[in-house]
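PROTEIN DESIGN WORKSHEET
SECTION A - STRUCTURE
LENGTH: 165
TOKENS:
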């Protein structure tokens, strides 16, 4: 089996285990469930959500080391059956937050703890490449974690004119 075939099977398994109509729907569902867990633990929340806390809800620890295989961030096995994330401290805060959210989303895939996952540059992704498709799915999930639907919807509904923005 080629690496591309193995990745396609991983995406199919991910979708099937989520009982979702598509990989994108599966990713949104997993991310929204994590946000719901965050809200359940902490009650009413304000945006932005704390990415370190979200990571801890997935049993991901923050490493003190910078990423090795990525300029932004990576998720790496910790050698004890778990994972930790490494994020480049020299990136702007918004980039770091997105990168951590992206790495959290890798943990929604089966067997995520068995290899290093890197946040790669999105400018060079191809939809036809299964590995790039996983990265795109994690970008979708990251957007759900950064702008969660329910808290965002509540904020939007509270605005009845542009003057209140």
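SECTION B - SEQUENCE
RESIDUE ASSIGNMENT:
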């Amino acid at each position: 089996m080629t690496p591309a075939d193995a990745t396609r099977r991983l995406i199919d398994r991910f979708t099937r285990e989520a009982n979702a109509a598509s990989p994108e729907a599966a990713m949104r569902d997993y991310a929204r469930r994590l946000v719901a867990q965050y809200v359940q633990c902490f009650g009413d929340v304000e945006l932005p959500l704390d990415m370190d806390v979200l990571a801890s809800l997935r049993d991901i620890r923050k490493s003190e080391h910078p990423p090795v295989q990525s300029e932004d961030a990576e998720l790496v096995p910790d050698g004890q059956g778990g994972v930790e994330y490494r994020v480049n401290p020299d990136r702007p805060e918004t980039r770091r937050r997105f990168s951590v959210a992206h790495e959290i989303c890798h943990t929604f895939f089966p067997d995520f703890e068995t290899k290093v996952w890197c946040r790669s540059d999105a400018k060079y992704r191809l939809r036809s490449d299964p590995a790039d498709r996983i990265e795109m799915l994690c970008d979708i999930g990251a957007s759900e974690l950064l702008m969660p639907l329910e808290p965002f919807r509540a904020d939007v509904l509270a605005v009845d004119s542009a003057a209140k923005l």
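SECTION C - NOTES
The two ends are 54 Å apart (CA to CA).
The chain has a mean pLDDT of 87.
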